[in-house]
Amino acid sequence: MAEIEILHRDLFDPRAVDPETDKFNKRLEEIIASMPIRHNSTPQEIREEMESGKSLMGPIRRLDEAQDRVVAGQDHDVPIRVFVPNEVHGVYLHIHGGGFTLCHPDHFDEALAETSKESKVAVVSVDYRLAPEDPYPAAADDCETVAAWLIQNAKEEFGSEKFIIGGESAGANLSVVTLLRMRDRHNFTGFLGANLAYGCFDISMTPSQRNWGERNLIISTPMIQWFNDHYVPQIEKRDDPDVSPIYAELSNMPPALFTVGTLDPLLDDTLFMHLRWLAAGNHADLAVYPGGTHIFNSFPIKIARDANEKMYGFMKSRLKAVG
Predict the structure, then answer these.
(1) pLDDT given at position 6
(2) By three-state DSSP, how is residue 67 classified?
């Protein structure tokens, strides 16, 4: 088991933010301030804006190399988006972010293709159902369906039975929920690693979520509440471990890499879950990036490249850990 990484307060000092990141964040905040307030929109309005290419992230670039497939479920078939490199060392079950209400795997094609190439993994990204049309537990059920299919079929489909799971934001939440369901419902604890980037592990809201306020660097407290209200309308359900996995019994989880920036309202979620992972007897590494906002690793700045390289390295090292 790894030693706990000592977090120094200097990491959280504004002076720790490098000039490139600081300049980018200031411009990002200006651009977001000039746009309509997202939590005053409906999910469908935001989805249409994203599909049109007029959102903050610009046009969606869908890659021809991706394969669209469908996994048959007991009650609901689940689409998946697949990338297969020339050399496959393992399979990465990817669960995308978007606050449980937005996005599809093809919105992440470039990142998934790069992950597949750099880490030599077949990427299987789950196109789970979205809230509010399909609130909890639809997304978690779909991820469980694909995970169960994968462990039965990966050898035939991709030539490997080495599995890593991971995702960003809501996808990190659903990744942990999937690990717990696979452990408890399927008696499977064979994932070799969990790549968990700025996850929202507590839908009942950690202090950093509650205290962030209306400052908008991708997400804000009102935006998080907007997501939560769509995903889990029943407030009394939000501390259920199947909704907020920070409350779960976390034994027999795989080694994890937790990634977060210091300017992310979900900062506490990662810091708290990292320690809970360790306290349950698991291996966990923590990477904190000064000045990193939510989804910072999607941006053209050095800390994004550093974070992505660390994630690629984590996956490669985990696949090598078991021969």
Answers:
(1) 58
(2) strand
- pLDDT score at 3: 44
Question: How many CB atoms within 10 Å of residue 52?
Answer: 10
Closest CA to 240 of 198, 203, 271: 203
- Residue 259 CA to residue 261 CA, distance in Å, equals 7
The average pLDDT across 254-273 equals: 98
Report helix, strand or coil for 281. Answer: coil
Domains assigned to the chain: 18-321 (3.40.50.1820)
Q: Cα(271)–Cα(175) distance, rounded to whole angstroms?
A: 17
Helix-then-strand count for the chain, H and E: 9, 8
Do residues 93 and 179 make contact, with C-beta atoms less than 8 angstroms apart? no
Tokens of 180: 């717990």
Taking the CB of residue 233, how many other CB atoms lie within 10 A of it? 13
CB 269 within 8 A of CB 197: no
Average pLDDT over the chain, rounded to an integer: 95
- Which of these, 77, 123, 68, 117, lies nearest to 96 by C-alpha position? 123
Lateral strand order in the sheet of 191-197? 67-71, 78-83, 121-126, 90-95, 163-168, 191-197, 256-263, 284-293
> What mean pLDDT is predicted for residues 194-222?
97
% of the chain with per-residue pLDDT over 70: 98
Gap between the Cα atoms of 93 and 83, Å rounded: 11
- Check pLDDT > 60 for residue 2: no
Residues 242, 210, 307: CA angle, nearest 5 degrees: 75
Nearest Cα neighbor of 257 from 277, 242, 243, 237 is 277
The DSSP code sequence of 237-267 is: GTTSTTT-GGGS--TTPPPEEEEEEEE-TTH
Rounded to whole angstroms, the Cα distance separating 231 from 100 reads: 6
How many other C-beta atoms lie within 10 A of the C-beta of residue 313? Answer: 13
